[in-house]
Write a structure and sequence with these properties.
Low-confidence stretches: 1-14
Mean pLDDT: 90
Strand content: 25-35%
Number of strands: 35
Structural class: mainly beta
């Protein structure tokens, strides 16, 4: 017991010491096994970068990280594939980052050293630091005779984001595509977002969920499930939103890829419609667009279809600083000075600034008053809302605001208000 406790302290110290971790290039199965040996001998903060696809057909893989030497480094797969994975990629992780790893195939069974926790990417997590798994695909099949079984992590603490499970699962209890079970108490929460499941078989005798087997806390958001298992959680107790059951046709249509990309400001998922049966992280494939007749804010009119060709978006129709069709603020409605401050010299422009902030267009906007302003009978719109908090600058330049009939600002977060005289 004393030796075990000393080893845990050593592993903890390695991850918190601030020492510069060594990064190893992994270009073969033997390189991967050598890396696992280094971590499991105590180099727990070592990092790895895959430089080639790896086939483990003739190698029995040793999971990276043990209960004594928990892995807290980074593995960047650079979107290379690992084929024929025959054991969990990692055993025990604690503050680790696993990213851009594509497990193309594999058959994973019980591992007595880590039982009862089994996952394609990790069996279990320590409780010192949260872990991050992002931009990964799990295409392995997992069969165990225990519980806490998953296509990603058996027992999870941390975040899984922009990932997909396309394999199969069969276990006894607490079985789910992304998490077998969580730790069940804050702050040891599990968060899963922007992910999808496309599996023809997820089975368990108890606490079976297409997404998660046993959830005590944490959150799941924007998850798409195409699986005969129609129950998302074996046990659900958390903050879960935007969970969608979809068909194989919806997966193939491009709809899921488009919706996973949210507001389309950061494209992560791609799909060649008519060729790819599901979204992919491969950026050599094409972006998916909402097709058909569009509004000027980019939202579709009528039935939504999906295409690899962008639709033509009509121009905004601005009037008094706002689009009469979609309500978007006209950012050049007011004159700006050389420092990027909007010059506000009348009530109409002050109210335009408030509405533009509250619409999210000018969250960090800056303005200067260039004249005194009397609100008279006009009801002022407070600048900033709980969902669109104002973080910019208002410089009154010692001008006066008269007959103010509402709060000047509603909700602010890091804003600067200076030289304003309210009479």
């Amino acid at each position: 017991m004393r030796k075990h406790f000393s080893l845990l302290l050593a592993a903890f110290a390695t991850c918190l010491s601030g020492w510069a971790a060594t990064t190893y290039e992994i270009g073969s199965a033997s390189d991967l096994e050598a890396f696992a040996a280094k971590v499991n001998a105590g180099e727990t903060d070592a990092c790895a970068v895959l430089t080639a696809d790896i086939d483990l057909a003739d190698v029995t893989h040793t999971p990276i990280g043990t209960a004594d030497w928990m892995f807290c480094g980074t593995i960047d797969g650079q979107y290379h594939t690992i084929s024929n994975l025959n054991n969990m990629l990692c055993g025990t992780i604690d503050g680790a980052t696993l990213t851009k790893i594509i497990v193309a195939s594999g058959e994973i069974k019980d591992n007595t050293e880590y039982a009862p926790h089994t996952g394609v990417f990790a069996g279990t997590c320590g409780t010192t630091k949260p872990n991050t798994i992002s931009y990964c695909i799990s295409g392995a099949n997992v069969v165990t005779s225990t519980g806490d079984t998953s296509g990603f992590v058996g027992k999870m603490y941390g975040t899984i984001e922009n990932c997909a499970f396309t394999g199969t699962l069969k276990a006894v209890t607490s079985t789910g595509a992304f998490i077998g079970s969580d730790y069940g108490a804050a702050p040891l929460n599990a968060t899963v977002k922007n992910c999808f499941v496309l599996s023809n078989s997820i089975q368990s005798d108890a606490y079976l969920g297409a997404i998660c087997g046993w959830q005590d806390s944490g959150s799941f958001d924007n998850i798409f499930v195409c699986c005969p298992t129609h129950v998302n959680f074996g046990r659900e107790s958390g903050t879960n939103t935007n969970l969608f059951s979809v068909s194989a046709d919806q997966m193939a249509s491009g709809e899921v890829a488009f919706r996973l990309n949210g507001d389309q400001s950061n494209i992560v998922w791609y799909q060649n419609i008519g060729e790819d049966p599901m979204p992919t992280l491969d950026s050599t494939h094409k972006q998916v667009y909402a097709a058909g007749e569009m509004r000027c804010d980019g939202t579709p009119l009528g039935t939504i279809e999906y295409s690899n060709t962008p639709s033509t978006i009509p121009a905004h129709e601005f009037e008094e600083g706002f689009c009469t069709v979609c309500g978007q603020a006209q950012v050049d409605y007011c004159e700006m000075d050389a420092d990027g401050y909007y010059l506000i010299g009348d009530l109409a422009r002050l109210e335009w600034f408030a509405k533009a902030v509250n619409a999210g267009t000018l969250k960090n906007g800056k303005m200067k008053l260039t004249a005194d302003i009397d609100f008279g009978d006009v009801e002022h719109t407070p600048i900033g809302t709980p969902s669109k908090m104002f973080s910019g600058i208002i410089d009154g330049q010692f001008h006066k605001l008269s007959n103010l009939n509402n709060m000047l600002c509603g909700t602010i977060d890091g804003a600067t208000l200076t030289r304003i005289i309210v009479e």
